[in-house]
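Lab manual, section 2.4: Encoding a predicted structure.

Procedure: take the sequence of the chain (323 residues), apply the prediction step described in section 2.3, and record the output as structure tokens. A sample record is shown.
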Amino acid sequence: MTDSLERMPELALDWHRAGKGAVLATVVETWGSAPRAVGAQMVVSGAGEMEGSVSGGCVEGAVVVEAMELVGSGAARMLEFGVSDDEAFAVGLACGGRIRVLLEPVGGALPVAVLDKLVAARAARRPVAYVADLEGDARRLDGPEAWAARFRMDRSGVEEDGRTFVHVHNPPLRMVIVGAVHIAQALVPMARIAGHDVTVIDPRPAFGAAARFPEVEIVEEWPDEALGEMGLDARTAVVTLTHDPKLDDPAIRAALGSEVFYLGCLGSTRTHAKRVARLEEAGFTPEDIARIHAPVGLDIGARGPAEIAVSVLAEVTQRLRKG
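Recorded output:
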């Protein structure tokens, strides 16, 4: 998927419905040191408005010109650009590269019905793949089960047949941290840099003070209530850090009843053994309990909040990418 903050499909649909016309440009292949990854998008209106990026500035002007010629037409167009060493240097690259960019007019090559369903799936945090025949007119949406490896790695691309382009639209990653403690203060900025939307849950106002967690969503509710309202899914990681069963246990039970891809819990081996006993008494099976990563984080010999945060983020990433 493109950057989780980008909303190019949504903007393309909005511009089309507003009568402006819209062409969605998507990077489908790259070679060498390309400025943007496969799946990067920009949208161009009939008036020459543009949002997004396919090359970090190298070829946007040419893409806009080509896209404006396609507004209101039916056919897609494939563009290929070679980024020279001089151009690459200008946008901060060490060497050149090449990219292929697919232009699809909304209402033509990109059917409005397909785009509408794509936008709806993204809004509902449902993973979906946009599949385009680069040599024909076929466009469709597939579920993640059809492209499991691509979804696990967030990897869009052209299949070996050379004509099937699969654009992975995964929901943005989320990390929910239960316990506004020192480790959380270190983990929050690291997780955000790694692409996670972060929420901290702690019903204790003194812990979740805005001064301790600037520009972070703090939820001052009991964890089970907060997690129930959020709706946990397979793109969510839950990390419990309070060391207090009254707070951690409700969050753990809520996470085990969901499809979260990661659940990690702070505490020693002894602490976890007591946790397991409580969960068994509550009716959770050994298979359920085995989903818990405890003690939390990879065993890298971490000392102090910052290093523990590094180990947690490393384990979350390992679980996300390797399954």
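Check your result against the sample. The first helix runs from residue 8 to 17.
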